[in-house]
Design goal:
- The protein is of the alpha/beta class.
- The chain has three domains: about 5-70; about 80-240, Rossmann fold (3-Layer(aba) Sandwich); about 265-384.
- Helices cover about 35% and strands about 25% of the residues.
- The strands form three sheets. It has a nine-stranded mixed β-sheet with strand order 3-2-1-4-7-9-8-10-11. Strands 13-12-14-17-16-15 form a six-stranded mixed β-sheet. The chain has a two-stranded antiparallel sheet with strand order 5-6.
- Helix 1 packs across helix 4.
- The longest helix is centred in the N-terminal third of the chain and has 21 residues, at about 45-65.
- It is globular and about 70 Å long.
- The two termini are about 50 Å apart.
- Bound molecules: S-adenosylmethionine.
- S-adenosylmethionine binds near residues 111 and 126.
Length: about 375
């Protein structure tokens, strides 16, 4: 969609077309609807309205009910922050006493919306003219105040009272990179901003070594998906590493205490990926009076059942043999026909092992295969 088409979509006629598409999509086939609407509207506008309606449906997972009022492009939707995650960040930033933010590369405004809703005065800067126009339209659609500037973020003068927020794009456009060298605006510039009142969202694969000194790195997961590392500039940092698990908002911070290692007890916990990426498995163990069965594997064991959003818990029903033949015999004795294997730190491919064992029986089973003090170990478990 080019800027002209988007501007047409924002006219009263374009809005009428968009509501007609929303009403009729699913009632008429895309083909019938498109053919009929092209008799009244130019084909580019019809195509844009149909795409917009489709993207609004797709965006509901990230933006909830707001999605039906917002505008997107396919790539910008992919790159936008989930509203729950953006809201978590915006709320934290507002709680520091910050009053205004400039979003340096705001895309279609995912973060900008959350920042404005948290009560911060917002300015968004975006190089792409279509995205800039969409960001402005999205703020307006939700009746939120804010200014959008179409231009290069690196040229913008940041106000004395403004916090800089940066969610750099991945240069390959596919939305995923593990290298800071691919970020746009460039990582070096982001690093410099982080020395002051700045917050940056980067890929969750960021290595601990890449986090500048004095900066807090917060790994965030949402609904079990590890989604980002948020870097809090020195004035906002309250720890060096943090894990936040949404939607509960449960968190852990680095304590640097020594991690206890001991044998597996009745309960086993698989930490959330945010906890693992933040390197806080030891801290998680401490919160549930647990320990690590193996110092190099991200499983925690404890004597008691704990209900925590920071980990998935399992009760160990029985220790099983690790070797394939004996494992198969043990599972056959339990009349297991449907098996799920969770593995960590061992060189097996669960699907292949399950296939090879050719189990038959009426029962389902969940088995954890891992390494304990250097040795392979298997446990028949049930979810807490
Ligand atoms: C990952 S997206 C931002 C998504 C946004 N946080 C959201 O939730 O919708 C990054 C954006 O930065 C923009 N961008 C990259 N370099 C820029 C620059 N130098 N100046 C302004 N915008 C830039 C890209 O066009 C892209 O839209």
């Amino acid at each position: 969609m080019d800027l002209e088409t988007f501007e047409q979509l924002m006219t009263p006629a374009g809005q009428l077309l968009l509501s007609e598409v929303a009403e009729r999509a699913g009632v008429e086939s895309d083909l019938a609807l498109g053919t009929r609407l092209r008799k009244t509207y130019v084909p580019e506008l019809v195509a844009a309205a149909v795409t917009q309606n489709h993207l609004r449906g797709k965006a509901a997972t990230k933006f909830g009910t707001d999605a039906a009022h917002l505008y997107f492009t396919h790539d910008a939707l992919e790159q936008s922050t989930r509203m729950r995650v953006a809201t978590h960040r915006a709320t934290r930033l507002a709680s520091t006493g910050a009053t205004s933010v400039v979003d340096l590369g705001c895309g279609i405004g995912g973060d900008l919306i959350a920042l404005a809703r948290a009560g911060l005065a917002v300015r968004g800067v975006e190089t792409d003219p279509v995205r800039a126009a969409i960001a402005a339209a999205n703020l307006a659609a939700l009746d939120l105040p804010g200014e959008i500037i179409c231009g290069d973020a690196q040229e913008v003068v940041i106000g004395r009272d403004e916090v800089a927020f940066i969610d750099p794009a991945r240069r390959d456009g596919r939305g995923r990179t593990f290298s800071t060298a691919d970020l746009q605006p460039p990582w070096e510039w982001v690093r410099q901003l982080l020395a002051g009142r700045a917050v940056a969202k980067v890929m969750p694969g960021l290595s601990h070594d890449a986090v500048p000194n004095g900066i807090e790195a917060e790994w965030v997961s949402d609904g079990g998906d590890l989604v980002e590392a948020c870097l809090w500039g020195a004035p906002f940092a309250t720890t060096s590493r943090r894990a936040t698990v949404l939607p509960s908002g449960a968190g852990l911070v680095s304590a640097g205490e020594p991690v206890a290692v001991a044998d597996v007890a009745e309960y086993l916990y698989e930490p959330d990926d945010a906890v693992i990426r933040a390197g806080l498995v030891g801290e998680l163990a401490a919160t549930i009076s647990g320990w690590l069965p193996d110092p190099h594997i991200a499983y925690v064991s404890a004597e008691h059942a704990h209900d925590t959003p920071l980990a998935r818990g399992f009760r160990i029903i029985e220790e099983l043999p690790f070797r394939e033949k004996s494992l198969k015999a043990a599972l056959q004795a339990h009349r297991v026909g449907t098996l799920t294997i969770k593995k960590r730190g061992v060189d097996i491919v669960p699907e292949e092992l399950i296939k090879k064992m050719k189990l038959k029986g009426p029962h389902k089973a969940l088995v954890v295969m891992t390494r304990v003090q250097g040795q392979g170990a298997a446990y028949l478990v049930e979810r807490l």
